[in-house]
Fold this protein.
Amino acid sequence: MGFATDAIHAGQEPDPSTGAVAVPIYQSSTYVQEELGKHKGYEYSRTGNPTRAALERNMAVLEGGKAALAFASGMAATNAVMTLLKSGDHVVCSEGAYGGTPRLFNSILKNFGLDFTYVDTTNPANLINAIQPNTRMVFVESPTNPLMKITDLSAISAITRSRGLSLVVDNTFLSPFFQKPISLGADIVVHSTTKYLNGHSDGVGGVAVLAQEEDAARLKFIQNAAGAILGPFDSWLVLRGIKTLAVRMKQHETNAIAIAKYLVGQPKVKKVNYPGLEDHPQHALASRQMTGFGGMMSFDTGSLENARRFLNRVKLCSLGESLGGVETLICHPATMTHAYFSEEERQRLGISQGLVRLSVGIEDADDIVTDLEMGLSAIPG
């Protein structure tokens, strides 16, 4: 089946008892058993819930994995994946990823004996040089948040497979519509379902999709034992959102391309980071690896004061921490999504005080441009 067909139908057949087209919200904590040791597939909703199970089946199909497991947030999904490791294990990670990821790794998981090294994974040689005898996993975010750096997943997976390492890819920025990391060699794919999968800024969740049955069985045990599950209503919201994922992602990209081209021509914008632009350092790689360039970008206004003036002036572009909704969202990474990093570290990574991140929505593109023009008019010069 095609992607749009699978998004609508995979894992969500009409309800057998009523014929309902939409998967019901099974808002139940427990399930009556027919007799001792005999039930209808469900015992307790932490262990399994029919609505969540439908979402998990759907995501496994869309990402091309053996199984998927839904969690209470994207960070809960990432945390669960990391508990596949044990004390003393080492992980190589993409530098410049979403600030919450190194915050989890450095401030929490290091306390349990895991060790982390951060490198620029756009150069596979950096990964090779960072591998240690106790390295067990490579965690890649591509594109990175917020600078939109692209990692060659096929090249990275060739390295990890030759050394028996697990490759985990955060695919939140593109969704399976534009990128399928498992087909490129990834072992595990994680998403914040809060973003493009849900698409409507009305639910928080996460999912991990696994390429190997053994990993899936282990993570299923962890999901049940630790209990950071996605509830039935939020599972239903994500299923509802995924049904329109294909059409939404096309419009996000169409608008983003138009916005990126507009911003490139503005003298008050110092630099635009969008892989759909031909001058992006990994444009050719993005064209091969992805089926589209997505709706995320960032651009530099030159200074904190310029960014403040710009962000205080825009109206249609909503200032807030998140992305992937139908509405255009805008944020200031240095003080919002990446505030965890020190100023020195942000400067080293290229996350300047003037950098603005834009999640382009599906409004009329001309209206977004008009709003951006109003924002740029507040910058002197």
Notes: The chain has two domains: 3-242, 246-376. The mean pLDDT is 97. The longest helix spans residues 245-264.
